């Protein structure tokens, strides 16, 4: 079965088989889209992987800083990290050389790490106000604008990494401070526990103090009573000593009279003794007898005074008995008798007490009397020397007289001391009263102190409990826990991104744009060599649709070949990967056929001017296909015309055929391309009728291309 349109189309292609040059032209038509799409995609298939060839100046001015006893050289560390990552071709130079290189184009940009970079990084660890660290990026868009855009994105990542490291160190200090605070607060809690325990002990001690002060107050009262009793007794002693002093004074006065008498007698008797020795002997014997009697009386005096006291007490008792038996005695007489008897007893006791208190003096008097007796006997024995012995006796009497005076003086001193003792006991009694009052106030104060210490103890216990609760709430991280929290706080929000139908590289992402673009350009070139309408068919009477098909079929064959060659080279040379290869090939063949139908129509209908129209359509589709940026970023005009052009539908469908995903856009693209294919062929068929009519304008066109 013959197909007239196919036969006519074959004649158009056989026209190029006449010589080698025409055959090369057909091959060129097939390869031309490859040059456009292949070379363009190859040139920036993966530019990010080759950024390490881009020369960038690196200026390191940073000086090390001190922080927490450590040396921080953040600038040098950052420079080493940049060179290690090899994002760019880093070249360490001076500031002047970097500025000159950026201006001349030797370097695309320069990164300067300032001199205070380490100091600013370490500033959060000090006591001053933290200051953000900065990096200075110098670019020259005259060198290359895109490189600057890529660099800014790269440096944002570098700056974020450097900042994250600085924040990591800052939070490490904070969490380390938490640990120190936890330990110190734990010590404070232990101290508060001890303080609470000590306050409790102090409270107990204050209670015991209050109890002891009360007891001491009672004892002080008893002490004051005892001192008052002692003072009363001391007063009585003073009174007795006064009586003793009076008695010893009387004795001393009598002894003085005796001494005077003895002295006078001695003065008279000594001469007489010398002259009258026999008489003296007799007199001496008489004196001896008298002295012996005196000694005997002195020895018996204590017993006699005691007997006198006993007789006085017996008499007093007899008087009481008598008075009890004779109630008729008047009361005043009864009282006078009782008072007199009591006074007699008192005087007798005083005399007896005095005698007994001066028993030593009486013994001495008795001894002296014995001595006088012996002396007198010796005088009598030694009459010739009696005068001398009398003189000696007088001396003894003088000594006895001096002794009695000393006893009287001692009694006066005892009286004065007793008076002082009485006065001192009075003062002591007043002090004991003050002591009792002070101990009363101390007891009251101790009770108040016990109450206050009880409140302090409760407060300290609450403080200890609060500190224990605070210690429990303050974290104490180990190195691993602190490091994990440092990482989290230095980068608290992390983007967990997932990409559906991920594109492996830059070229694969742009392939859906450049492949349809190359097919449109290839279609324009095809109809620069091929005639959109075969002149022989046009001159005949064949239907317009057959003439249109005859002009479209050779171009469609070349277009399908163009699509196949482009895909083959991109896959086997550049490594293009697609999720749906058969569907991609078929869809691009359909897209090329639809493009050629549109291009055929504008060339058939408008002649040479159609080439300009095809180029204009190319420009409109380039700007509305959203091949680089989302269509929403384009002005409204391009968004409005986008649905009415074939290439935007092709770009969307090829994206899904290469990367994967829902096939909805593919089916929509197929439907739109079929409409453009049918519409283009239909319009070309109508243009056949137009071209069969020759006019003066067609014979002499105003514009020739």
TrEMBL record:
One of its GO terms (molecular function) is ABC-type transporter activity. Keywords: Membrane, Transmembrane, Transmembrane helix. Residues 205-221 have a biased composition (Low complexity). The keyword Transmembrane helix applies. Residues 450-682 form the ABC-2 type transporter transmembrane domain. It is found in: Membrane. One of its GO terms (cellular component) is membrane. Residues 196-242 are annotated as: Disordered. It is a multi-pass membrane protein. Pfam families: ABC2_membrane_3 (PF12698). The lineage of its organism: Bacteria, Bacillati, Actinomycetota, Actinomycetes, Streptosporangiales. This is YhgE/Pip domain-containing protein.
């Amino acid at each position: 079965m013959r197909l007239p349109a196919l036969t006519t189309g074959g004649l158009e292609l056989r026209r190029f088989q006449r010589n080698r040059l025409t055959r090369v032209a057909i091959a060129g038509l097939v390869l031309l889209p490859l040059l456009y799409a292949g070379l363009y995609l190859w040139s920036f298939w993966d530019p990010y992987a080759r950024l390490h060839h881009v020369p960038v100046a690196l200026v390191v001015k940073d000086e090390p800083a001190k922080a927490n006893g450590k040396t921080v050289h953040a600038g040098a560390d950052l420079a080493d990290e940049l060179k290690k990552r090899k994002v760019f071709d880093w070249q360490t130079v001076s500031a002047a050389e970097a500025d000159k290189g950026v201006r001349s184009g030797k370097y695309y940009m320069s990164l300067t790490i300032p001199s205070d970079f380490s100091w600013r990084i370490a500033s959060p660890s000090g006591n001053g106000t933290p200051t953000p660290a900065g990096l200075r990026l110098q670019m020259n868009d005259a060198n290359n604008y895109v490189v600057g855009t890529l660099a800014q994105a790269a440096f944002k990542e570098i700056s974020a990494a450097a900042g994250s490291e600085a924040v990591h160190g800052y939070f490490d200090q904070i969490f380390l401070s938490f640990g120190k605070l936890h330990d110190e607060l734990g010590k404070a809690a232990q101290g508060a526990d001890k303080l609470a325990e000590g306050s409790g002990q102090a409270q107990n001690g204050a209670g015991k103090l209050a109890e002891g002060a009360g007891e001491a107050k009672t004892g002080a009262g008893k002490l004051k009573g005892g001192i008052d009793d002692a003072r009363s007794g001391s007063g009585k002693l003073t009174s007795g000593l006064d009586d003793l002093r009076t008695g010893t004074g009387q004795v001393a006065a009598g002894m003085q009279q005796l001494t005077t008498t003895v002295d006078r007698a001695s003065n008279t008797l000594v001469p007489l003794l010398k002259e009258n020795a026999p008489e003296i002997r007799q007199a001496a014997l008489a004196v001896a007898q008298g002295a012996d009697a005196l000694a005997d009386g002195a020895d018996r005096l204590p017993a006699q005074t005691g007997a006198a006291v006993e007789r006085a007490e017996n008499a007093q008792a007899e008087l009481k008995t008598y008075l009890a038996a004779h109630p008729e005695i008047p009361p005043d007489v009864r009282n006078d008798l009782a008072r007199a008897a009591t006074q007699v007893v008192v005087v007798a006791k005083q005399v007896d007490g005095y005698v007994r208190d001066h028993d030593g003096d009486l013994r001495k008097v008795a001894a002296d009397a014995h001595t006088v007796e012996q002396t007198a006997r010796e005088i009598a024995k030694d009459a010739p020397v009696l005068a001398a012995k009398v003189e000696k006796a007088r001396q003894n009497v003088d000594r006895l007289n001096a002794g009695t005076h000393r006893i009287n003086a001692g009694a006066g001193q005892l009286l004065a001391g007793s008076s002082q003792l009485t006065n001192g006991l009075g003062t002591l009694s007043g002090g004991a009263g003050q002591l009792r009052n002070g101990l009363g106030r101390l007891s009251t104060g101790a009770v108040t102190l016990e109450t206050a210490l009880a409140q302090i103890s409760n407060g300290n216990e609450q403080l200890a409990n609060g500190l224990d609760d605070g210690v429990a709430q303050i974290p104490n991280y180990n190195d691993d826990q602190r490091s994990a929290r440092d990482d989290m706080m230095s980068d608290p929000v992390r983007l967990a991104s997932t990409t559906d139908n991920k594109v492996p590289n830059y070229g694969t992402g742009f392939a859906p744009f450049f492949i349809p673009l190359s097919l449109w350009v290839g279609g324009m070139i095809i109809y620069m060599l091929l005639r959109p309408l075969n002149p022989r068919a046009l001159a005949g009477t064949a239907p317009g649709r057959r003439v249109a098909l005859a002009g479209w079929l050779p171009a469609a064959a070349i277009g399908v070949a163009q699509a196949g060659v482009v895909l083959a080279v991109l896959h086997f040379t550049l490594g293009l990967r697609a999720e749906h290869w058969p569907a991609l090939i078929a869809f691009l063949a359909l897209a090329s056929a639809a493009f050629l139908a549109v291009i055929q129509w504008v060339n058939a209908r408008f002649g040479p001017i159609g080439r300009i129209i095809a180029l204009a359509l190319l420009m409109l589709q380039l700007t509305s296909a959203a091949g680089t940026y989302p269509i929403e970023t384009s002005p409204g005009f391009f968004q409005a015309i986008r649905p009415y052009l074939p290439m935007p539908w092709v770009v969307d469908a090829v994206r899904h055929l290469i990367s994967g995903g829902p096939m909805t856009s593919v089916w929509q693209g197929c439907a739109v391309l079929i409409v453009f294919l049918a519409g283009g062929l239909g319009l070309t068929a109508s243009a056949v009728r137009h071209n069969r009519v020759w006019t003066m304008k067609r014979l002499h066109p105003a514009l020739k291309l």
